[in-house]
Design goal:
- The chain is α+β, with helices and mostly antiparallel strands.
- The protein folds into three domains: 97 residues, Orthogonal Bundle (Helix Hairpins); 49 residues, Roll (SH3 type barrels); 82 residues, Alpha-Beta Plaits (2-Layer Sandwich).
- It contains seven helices and eight strands, in the order ααααββββαββαββα.
- It has a five-stranded antiparallel sheet with strand order 4-3-2-1-5. A three-stranded antiparallel sheet has the order 6-8-7, with helices on one face.
- Strand 1 and strand 2 form a beta hairpin.
- It is elongated.
- It starts with a helix and ends in a 20-residue tail after the last helix.
């Protein structure tokens, strides 16, 4: 009996401190995990991240920290956790390989929501397509094309390509080239183009519109208009300028070269 009591005392002396330390690790670790969870939630909410993303990331971080705390507590008691960690690692690797594409889309969606290269309502080019952003979700981005088609692009493809956001700035520059005959007077052509741009109230005065003789090509001269407009007016101004230039050139006698193709006929009978 005395031997049993001695062994119990030895066991309590040996394991008692470890058990107390393990309990403290669990209590403190859980408290720290909750504090980190609140901190992450506050940071993401401050950045106006979608609540679905916030909830997922916060819970994932909380579970990961609790797992680490439990492993640390078990190790403190003396339980071998090497195999346990190996099992968790193998399971995580298997899940990661199985969901490789989905995880890539999720990571890309998370980065897009955090850094916001575009937002709903922007007209963008990206992922091999173009359109107005309808919605940004965790795994996909939905675009609405100008001819009213809905295109769903995986976020990994969207983030893996160059993204051009045409709505990021309030103003855009309309660059248009016009080819006129080489015999036309340069100043006369410039005056006509300047008259058109000044008469269009949608073209901004600042920055000033530039009318340039860009180059000589195809037996003529290429003039370029560089006009600044508000973003929503871009395409209307673009097409209206085409019509206006055509009308004023016709009324002012400014010629536009016509492509000429020479056809040579070979007579096999005559050998020429």
């Amino acid at each position: 009996m005395e031997n049993l009591l001695v062994k119990v005392q030895e066991w309590v002396a040996f394991y008692g401190f470890k058990i107390i330390a393990a309990v403290l690790i669990l209590i403190v670790g859980r408290w720290v995990a909750k504090m980190v969870k609140k901190l992450i939630s506050r940071i993401l909410s401050g950045r106006k991240v979608d609540q679905t993303i916030v909830s997922f990331v916060v819970n994932l971080a909380y579970i990961a920290m609790l797992t680490f705390v439990v492993i640390a507590a078990l190790a403190q008691v003396g339980i071998q956790t090497t195999s346990f960690i190996a099992v968790i690692g193998a399971a995580g690797l298997a899940i990661g390989l199985a969901l490789q594409g989905s995880l890539a889309n999720f990571a890309a969606g998370f980065l897009m929501i955090i850094f916001k290269p575009f937002k709903a309502g922007d007209y963008i080019e990206g992922g091999g397509t173009a359109g107005v952003v309808e919605k940004i979700e965790v795994f996909t981005t939905t675009l609405n094309t100008v001819d009213n088609k809905v295109i769903i692009v995986p976020n990994a493809k969207m983030m893996g390509d160059n993204i051009t956001n045409y709505s990021a700035k309030k103003t855009r520059r309309v660059d248009m080239d016009f080819l006129v005959g080489g015999g036309n007077d340069v100043e006369k052509v410039k005056a006509c183009l300047r008259e058109i741009t000044k008469s269009d109230q949608r073209i901004l005065a600042d920055p000033e519109t530039a009318i340039l003789l860009k180059e000589f090509r195809d037996g003529g001269m290429v003039f370029q208009i560089r006009a600044w407009v508000n973003g929503p007016d871009y395409w209307d101004v673009y097409f209206d300028l085409n019509e206006a230039v055509n009308r004023i050139f016709a009324s002012r006698g400014i010629s536009m070269p016509v492509a000429v193709r020479n056809v040579h006929v070979y007579d096999h009978a005559k050998g020429s």
